[in-house]
């Protein structure tokens, strides 16, 4: 298949110092799966996809009926409609408020606040373990930076 590429473009794979040829050789190397990078894009995207928020956590979120509006003339960040009297809204731990229906449909798909990306716990133990490891890595990086700063100040 790669030899067809060189024939189609009227060149060979041994023409000397030609930058375009170097790119062709690199492409051929990866086409033959001889490359040093082997990435499965599907598994990578699945790893990054956040699961829905924990059903128990969602049930325990504080619900309030708006007397006037929760924050003056505020509107729901999901549907962008203003809060009306007697409407039920939910406040996430990050203090952002949403219409009940809007945020429940959101949290059924992902575990984060649509405004600030604050993550709520999930029912997925693998994802929770990954979150803990990421937090530990952030703390370690912060401690190393603080130690470095204290040594050279």
Radius of gyration, in Å, reads: 26 Å
Assembly level: single chain
Structural class: mainly alpha
* Percentage of residues assigned to helices: 40-55%
- The residue-averaged pLDDT reads 78
How many β strands by DSSP? Answer: 3
Spatial separation of the terminal alpha carbons:
61 Å
Tell me the major beta sheet: 3 strands, antiparallel
Percentage of β-strand residues: 5-15%
What do these coordinates show?
It is extended, with a radius of gyration of 26 Å. The mean pLDDT is 78. It starts with a helix and ends with a helix. A three-stranded antiparallel β-sheet has the order 1-2-3. It is mainly alpha-helical. β2 and β3 form a beta hairpin. The chain has six helices and three strands, in the order ααααβββαα. Helix content is 44%, strand content 7%.
List the helices and strands and how they pair.
Blueprint: H1 2-8, H2 19-31, H3 41-48, H4 55-59, E1 63-65, E2 88-91, E3 97-99, H5 100-107, H6 125-151
């Amino acid at each position: 298949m790669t030899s067809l590429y060189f024939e189609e473009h009227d060149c060979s794979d041994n023409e000397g110092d030609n930058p375009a040829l170097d790119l062709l050789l690199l492409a051929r190397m990866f086409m033959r799966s001889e490359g040093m990078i082997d990435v499965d894009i599907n598994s990578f995207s699945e790893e990054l996809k956040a699961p829905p928020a924990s059903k128990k956590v969602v049930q325990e979120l504080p619900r309030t009926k708006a007397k006037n509006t929760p924050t003056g003339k505020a509107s729901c960040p999901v549907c962008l409609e203003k809060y009306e009297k007697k409407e039920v809204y939910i406040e996430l731990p990050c203090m952002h408020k949403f219409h009940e229906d809007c945020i429940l449909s959101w949290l059924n798909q992902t575990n984060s606040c649509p405004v600030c990306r604050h993550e709520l716990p999930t029912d997925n133990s693998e994802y929770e373990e990954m979150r803990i490891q990421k937090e530990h890595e952030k703390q370690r990086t912060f401690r190393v930076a603080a130690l470095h700063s204290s040594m050279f100040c």
